[in-house]
Design goal:
single chain, 437 residues, mainly alpha
Length: 437
């Protein structure tokens, strides 16, 4: 493994693990605050028990997210010094603000965890709200920094120099809104379905049914609603990619030839040798409509992009199709849940219905990983779109592949620890929270 591949692989492993911790860290405090509010308003102790149980999970993911995030911050400087030398002063503001949000979140979480029976109920609840707001703000700020890499702004690039730097304009670049919206909704969909799936499993096993049923409802309402509205944010992201990263959009669709009535391709395998998609389903004119608001105008294909500037087409296309397929599946399951609430309440306790959510537990996070792959791989060969290539940003440090192996072991060990702690917490639920208190 050469140094360039090792650096990219290490960053991919780090981001792949951190994004799961981050999504859960953004969303679980919101669920926690909702159940806490319900306890204060209704006095039903089951909601208090749910809040206390979920707060343990929030603490676990806050700690693991802090570890993985700290590693990432060091990796940016160690693995990509050329990139940080130029980009740091430009897009450093969202990272700095994310640090502020992180510390606010840490303080508020401390108040929340140790505030039971010590604070006024509403003040205690407000500390939980601050945890949720800070977590979401942290996610948006990090995505803002990443979106700058896709849509660089806030500087003039003249003769290899970065001049007239405007950090505010860089933070609120042309892609920050669509990408932040898409990522935030994805976090709610993935976490909502994961949490709902775990509680559905406990209901199916007839363990502490009242507790898990109320917890399931909170999680699934958010997850299902997010999954249903996600295609609209995806539409905004695709239009933005067409405007600012046409090579990425073409690779996502494996769209080789520019033409009028550009088709949207569903599924299929990209045949890069023959420049076509095998086994895909073409919907004529739909890509033109999504990009241009009409069915006729052409959309730039890969034939308009120099080969040296094209992203890896096969990986980008497969990841995009995986994201769309899973997103569509959980959207349909989400719609089914609301139909059950509206017309078919008997479904809610049926085994087949619970099994849908049990099987869906990991799907949202698989879609998140696929979407992140589209974002990062689809930008290649650029680390800053159109300005700096990834190959120009990596450190020439020898032996970097050893750190790749080391950090891979660390992340897998961290994940095993998280699974163990969460499993223990779930098993403790009947013991801790069965009794009305």
């Amino acid at each position: 493994m050469n140094d360039f591949i090792a650096a990219r692989s290490q960053m991919a492993i780090s981001l792949g693990f951190h994004i799961v911790y981050s999504c859960i860290g953004m969303v679980m405090p919101v669920f926690m605050a909702i159940s806490h509010y319900k306890w204060i308003k209704t006095g039903n102790p089951v909601y208090k028990n749910i809040t206390q149980a979920w707060s343990k999970g929030v603490a676990i993911f806050f700690a693991t997210g802090a570890v993985s995030g700290t590693i990432l911050s060091f990796e940016l400087g160690l693995l990509w010094p050329k990139f940080m030398e130029h980009a740091g002063p430009i897009f450093g503001m969202p990272f700095s603000l994310e640090g502020v949000a992180f510390f606010i979140e840490a303080i508020a979480l401390g108040f929340f965890l140790y505030g039971w029976n010590r604070f006024n109920n509403w003040f205690h609840w407000c500390t939980g709200i601050i945890v949720g707001i800070s977590g979401i703000a942290s996610g948006i700020l990090v995505v803002s920094a990443n979106s700058w890499m896709n849509s660089p702004s806030g500087f003039d690039y003249v003769n290899g120099q970065y001049l007239n730097i405007d950090p505010v304009k860089a933070m609120f670049n042309g892609s920050w809104f669509s990408e932040s919206l898409h990522m935030t909704i994805a976090a709610f969909a993935a976490t909502g379905f994961a949490v709902a799936g775990i509680h559905a499993l406990m209901i199916a096993r007839k363990k502490n049914i009242q507790f898990h049923t109320k917890a399931f409802k909170i999680a699934v309402v958010f997850g299902a609603a997010a999954a249903i509205i996600q295609p609209f944010s995806g539409y905004l992201s695709a239009r933005n990619a067409a405007r600012r990263q046409p090579a990425k959009l073409a690779a996502m669709e494996a769209y080789f030839h520019t033409r009028q009535y550009a088709p949207l391709v569903l599924g299929g395998v990209a045949d890069t040798a023959n420049k076509k998609v095998k086994y895909g389903i073409e919907i004529p004119g739909l890509l033109s409509f999504l990009v241009n608001d009409n069915f006729k105008n052409p959309v730039n294909g890969l034939d308009k992009i120099p080969v040296k500037d094209q992203p890896p087409i096969t990986i980008t296309h497969l990841a995009f199709d995986l994201m769309i397929t899973i997103g569509s599946a959980i959207m349909l399951i989400g719609l089914l849940y609301f139909v059950a609430l509206w017309k078919k309440r008997s479904w809610l306790s049926k085994k087949w219905f619970l099994n849908l959510f049990i099987l869906s537990t990991p799907l949202g996070f698989i879609a998140v990983e696929a979407g992140w792959t589209v974002t990062e791989v689809g930008r290649q060969p650029w680390i800053i779109q159109g300005v700096m290539r990834t190959s120009e940003a990596v450190t020439p440090m020898p032996g970097i592949h050893y750190s790749f192996y080391l950090f891979t072991v660390i992340y897998f060990t961290l994940s095993i620890a998280v699974i163990f702690l969460l499993s223990r917490q779930i098993k403790m639920v009947p013991q801790l929270y069965d009794k009305v208190n």
